[in-house]
Amino acid sequence: MGGDFGPSVTIPAVKKALLAHPKVSFQLFGDSQLINQELNHHRVKSQSQIQIFQSEDDVKMDDPPALALKNKKKSSMRLALEAVRDGRANACVSAGNTGALMGISRFILKMLPGIDRPAIISAIPTLINDHVYLLDLGANVECDEKRLAQFAIMGNELAKCLDNIEEPTVGLLNVGEEEIKGHEKLRKASELIGSLDSMNYAGFVEGNKIFSGDYQVVVTDGFTGNNVLKASEGLSHYLSIKIKKAFERNWWTRLCGLLAKPVIGAFKAEINPEKYNGACLIGLRGIVIKSHGSANINATFCAIEEAVQQSHEKLPQKIRDQLERASGKLSDASA
Amino acid sequence: MGGDFGPSVTIPAVKKALLAHPKVSFQLFGDSQLINQELNHHRVKSQSQIQIFQSEDDVKMDDPPALALKNKKKSSMRLALEAVRDGRANACVSAGNTGALMGISRFILKMLPGIDRPAIISAIPTLINDHVYLLDLGANVECDEKRLAQFAIMGNELAKCLDNIEEPTVGLLNVGEEEIKGHEKLRKASELIGSLDSMNYAGFVEGNKIFSGDYQVVVTDGFTGNNVLKASEGLSHYLSIKIKKAFERNWWTRLCGLLAKPVIGAFKAEINPEKYNGACLIGLRGIVIKSHGSANINATFCAIEEAVQQSHEKLPQKIRDQLERASGKLSDASA
């Protein structure tokens, strides 16, 4: 029910996912009348793979998370997360209110041992090697070295799972590459991450290198990660408006624009943000994928694909194992 | 002598500045033989407005700041800063080692009362209103509310001076616009900045709004600011490579590229980073402009123009006055 478009986007995305993954089945939580309407409208077949669950409420995009948690106990979001908790579903995909999804996930699914709050992780495009995973994107505004090391472990497992890389290169975001740069927590985190077994840690990475493709995982605190991600969105928007205006200047530039349209289209397809939809709330005892509120059908399909892949790979269990292996070093750090 | 190109760029930039500002005179610090060569090579006239000072050493781009400060007492950088300290020059422009420029400026010029370290501030382009000043860009990785409030005061004065705006709109970078967002220091800083006289404070601003043009000054700690700025550089580079490749795909796209070249050129001219060259080390008892190491002649000219403008406006004195006016509130905050 969430996001800007609700079932009019989620249902056709489900249709697409059913075709791509014939063994996957869906439980849809929300207004069953609306859902059935959309299923009919989009002529979704294979309805044997679809179950509909009537919710009594929806978390609104601007509901304060604490109130959503307290007052909306039969919301579509909460019912979906309960299905994951009870083992009736392998993963939850939602385009709803991020703060509420975070709060309700934490309450319903609980955290993996040693983790206090989920981190938000998402892929962003890079020049070579296609993409990099950046975390945390805003859930943890203040992070000590232990938490940053947990992020490194979780990001590393996610990259291994989703991209089939044996040894992802992991970097820690800092204002310089030299060991003496940044504040003390960061230097301690660098030492701790470097000491972890089976971690291909490449040290500090500067902001301009995020998009280079030299790293598969870049770790930072949620305050910096959120601002870097949002500034990148803002800059992309700025540049797209400016280039559009450059082509609209006069009849000649408009003609050039017309001719160059397929090229600009190919360019846009390559950097298509839809591919990168599906942030993961990582560190929970279950799989929760946050689709962007403005996600269209293709983007929502990508978020569903991510859920499918994480389920196949049993990502939470893998993260749990790695956190256990590192628990000695992590608890030494916090001592 | 600094930057990637030394006098081969600084001298023609000086020539351009002499034409644009016939009342400005220059003191050039460095290898006088090299400087004279370049002056002759570029046929710089009005040499009555140029004085050359032979330095005995140069700070290298990779010199550790502490060593540059201790061992290079006759470097071109230091001699230039001493000229500002002694009132023989109104401002210093350098394309050299940022860390060393920071350390030596701090030692030679000293800080304004109440300021511990200079902040780095620079203009970045926006959709409307041309540009926004972002600070700190990396000098202060950890900032309490008092320091963030000082940044707001300094940024506010700089925007008033350079852009002739009576009441710049000032925002504080955060992970959300709501008052409850972010960590405690940030909420305290927001309250403190909001309480300052003659400050048009607009509250928290999210990363995607930096480029919107809704703000003239955006304040953040040096860790976040540095990473946001560098990530923006990285993203711009990524997008420019991708668009170039899109036009290089085959003979047809190459033809389109040829036709669209003037449009892409106009686009590039509009977002031209040269215009935004000239970061200011702010909070010192003198004017220090840091030109980018890779700055070309036009970009270096822009950095010189900024120095001229700040000198005309007596920026350090204005900041000093505002810090004094706010000193009660700032010291209450640190109590």
Q: What descriptors fit this protein?
A:
homodimer, 335 residues, Rossmann fold, 2 domains, eight-stranded mixed β-sheet, 12 helices
Structure description:
Two copies of one chain form a homodimer. The first copy, chain A, has 335 residues and is α/β, with parallel strands linked by helices. Chain A folds into two domains: 7-109, Rossmann fold (3-Layer(aba) Sandwich); 119-274 and 320-334, Isopropylmalate Dehydrogenase. The first copy, chain A, is built from twelve helices and ten strands. The longest helix of chain A is centred in the C-terminal third of the chain and has 26 residues, at 222-247. The mean pLDDT of chain A is 91. At the A-B interface, helix 8 and helix 9 of A face helix 8 and helix 9 of B.
Write the layout of secondary structure elements.
The structure is a homodimer.
Chain A (H helix, E strand, L loop, with lengths): L6 H14 L5 E5 L1 H10 L8 E5 L10 H7 L4 H10 L5 E4 L3 H12 L9 E7 L5 E5 L9 H19 L5 E5 L10 H12 L4 E6 L11 E3 L2 H26 L3 H20 L8 E4 L4 E4 L6 H17 L1 H11 L1 H8 L1
Parallel strand pairs in A: 1-2, 3-10, 5-8, 6-7, 6-8
Antiparallel strand pairs in A: 4-5, 4-9, 9-10
Subcellular location (chains A, B): Cytoplasm
Pathway (chains A, B): Lipid metabolism; phospholipid metabolism
EC number (chains A, B): 2.3.1.274
Q: So what's the oligomer here?
A: homodimer
Tally the beta strands of chain A. 10
Count structural domains of chain A.
Answer: 2
Q: Rg of chain A from C-alpha positions?
A: 21 Å
The chain-level structural class of chain A is alpha/beta
Residue share in β-strands of chain A: 5-15%
Find the CATH superfamily of the largest domain in chain A: Isopropylmalate Dehydrogenase
EC number (chains A, B): 2.3.1.274
Subunit structure (chains A, B): Homodimer. Probably interacts with PlsY.
Catalytic activity (chains A, B): a fatty acyl-[ACP] + phosphate = an acyl phosphate + holo-[ACP]
Subcellular location (chains A, B): Cytoplasm
